[in-house]
Amino acid sequence: MERYCTILAVACALAACRTVGPPVSPPAAPVPQEQSPQMTVLENKRLRVEIIDPNQQSRYHGPRFEWSGMVWQITLDGRHTFCRTSDVRDVIDSGVGLAEEAAEPLGFDEIGEGGDFVKLGIGVLRKHNNEPYGFWKPYPIVDAPKFEVASTPPSLTHTQVLRGPRGWGYRYSKTVALAGDKPALTITHELENIGTKPISTTQYNHNFMIFDNNPVGPGYSACFGFKPAIDGDFDLRGIVEFADSCVGYRRAFDGKPLFVAIKGFADSIEHNRIIVQHHQSDTGVGIAGDFPLAKLHFFTTPEMICPEPFVDLDVEPGEKQQWTRIYTFRGGDDATSR
């Protein structure tokens, strides 16, 4: 019940946060409803959600993002899309859509070159030198246990059980579910520590978003449940600006990505609220979680706007931790959200 109250709160906030922008664009043309191979599709009256099969080698199988619960595309009312996707030839190495990552690997600092460590939601990776960990580095994947896939419409669950080196082990389930016939979905996680060492890391969703393929820049904004401030020495290059509770775009990109860490939030679930909008098309998505923010990053390019909310994971042997992310979508021709 609490989770669906949160969905309702995000939906109400999304409807209320209709700021004045440039003239509204004509409605987007209907998106062809063609099911991609190696995808599971969840549908209700409002949403179509395409989820990648984590056991398919021709989809994402890189050493960075979790293979489970990766949402390829979300379509609202047959016409509005919200996710940045890639050509299938690039997806094996690049995250797309709603892609999650455990930022800190397990056991990396206790080994030397040639030793094995664990990346949550992937499996066992190999350390190929003695340099510090880098998420962009192509660590060889030594063991990636197969995922159990359970489809119970309107939900889909991926579960991976890993018994790794030196006492590392977990049972990790992720469920993507639609909220009845509402334009909302949830991603619910359960991490059980079946090893002998404490699991401590942070986990986030990268949220590779672009609305109806409109280039990211002026007309987009991201608003937060608190007044954000820059956490560190980051050059905004005159592209984005912070005003009140929002980040907006002042000008088009100069070809380089932009990244900034954000501070200003308290240890409160109420601050874990984000609304991303494209004002010309009057489309938007509300993002919330049932956990306080551990960190918050903001990454953007002309092809994506990515607010990245982090959760702290601390699971002792024999214990479990659960957390949920909630997404609520709105389209410019969505009369129910006005």
- Please bin the fraction of helical residues: under 10%
- Provide the gyration radius in Å: 20 Å
User: What proportion strand?
Assistant: 35-45%
Tally of strands: 23
**Residue runs with pLDDT of under 50 for 5 or more positions:** 1-35
Q: In this structure, how is the largest beta sheet organized?
A: 10 strands, antiparallel
Shape: globular
Instruction: Determine the CATH topology.
Output: Beta-galactosidase, Chain A, domain 5
The count of domains is 1
Going across the major beta sheet, what is the strand order?
Answer: 9-10-11-12-23-20-19-14-17-16
| Helix count from the secondary structure assignment | 2
Mean pLDDT: 88
Taking the alpha carbons of the first and last residues, their distance comes to 24 Å
Report the CATH C-level class: Mainly Beta
